[in-house]
Design a protein that fits this description.
It holds the Pfam family KaiB. It comes from Candidatus Synechococcus calcipolaris G9. This is Circadian clock KaiB family protein. It is a single chain. Strands 5-4-3-1-2-6 form a six-stranded mixed β-sheet. It has a four-stranded mixed β-sheet with strand order 8-7-9-10. Helix 2 links the parallel strand 4 and strand 5. It is an alpha/beta fold. The protein has two domains: 130 residues, no CATH class; 83 residues, Glutaredoxin. The relative contact order is 0.14. Helices cover 25% and strands 25% of the residues.
């Protein structure tokens, strides 16, 4: 969780799949929604920033000092699709000692139109409708670039899942190949878990695995999949690259 300054503006951007990226900005600068979309693009490996999510999938809170009353005031607004996430937003944005934030719902007469317009993007950006258990807090940055985006931490270990169909000769060969190639492709720790789709179909469904063998990069984000032959070091490097 990002450290909280005394007074700040907090912005949260959700996805239809209920992932969250947020920031706390003491300088209250503009274009933060654009920044959040740009970072989300790289975290989920999208072709472009999902600007169509704003402002419908956003919430904002602004703490400011009122010299007339000598008190801290707050204006907090959330759009209907993120209204249910107020308890989480309270944890992220409440000041020390503040139990809850007085949220206002930005109801609009064209809610259905907004929802339909965003739904039209589902086929182009399916990652946004998937739940990656992502809650990411940004530091105060003026303008994110590819070089400073948190796409792949230099210290976060890799979590890989190899989906197979039983303990067959093909499974043994896939494991042998990965244990030979992974040390050549990675310079940091990794965990490789073998998942039998027959025994753990729920996990296979969650990772959207429809064929075996499939290698899934679960961490760091973005999630990526390699289906079929695993003996190509070029394909494996693309899966593991930031």
């Amino acid at each position: 969780m990002v450290a909280k300054p005394l007074l700040y503006k907090g912005l949260a951007l959700f996805t239809p799949g209920e992932d969250l990226i947020y920031c706390l900005d003491p300088h209250k600068q503009g274009r933060w929604h654009h920044h959040l979309c740009t970072v989300l693009q790289h975290l989920l490996d999208l072709s472009e920033p999902p600007l169509f999510l704003t402002p419908y999938y956003t919430a904002t809170v602004d703490y400011w000092y009122d010299p007339a009353s000598q008190q801290i005031r707050v204006v907090a607004e959330a759009h209907p699709p993120v209204w249910q996430h107020r308890p989480l937003l309270n944890q992220l944005f409440a000041l020390p000692g503040q139990k809850s934030i007085p949220w206002q719902c930005l109801e609009t007469v064209d809610t259905q139109d907004h929802s339909s317009a965003i739904e039209a993007y589902r086929h182009r950006y399916p990652q946004l409708w998937q739940h990656h258990q992502l809650i990411y807090g940004l530091q105060d940055i003026a303008s994110p670039t590819v070089s400073n985006l948190p796409t792949a931490s230099t210290t976060e270990p890799y979590l890989l899942r190899l989906y197979v169909s039983g303990h067959t000769t093909a499974t043994a060969q896939a494991l042998k190949t990965l244990h030979e190639l992974l040390p050549r492709c990675l310079s940091r720790p990794y965990t490789l878990k073998v998942v039998d789709v027959a025994r753990q179909p729920d996990l296979a469904e969650e990772d959207q695995v429809t064929a075996t063998p499939t290698l899934v990069r679960a961490r760091p984000f973005p999630i990526r999949r390699l289906v079929g032959s695993l003996d190509s070091i070029e394909r494996l490097q693309r899966l593991l690259s930031p």
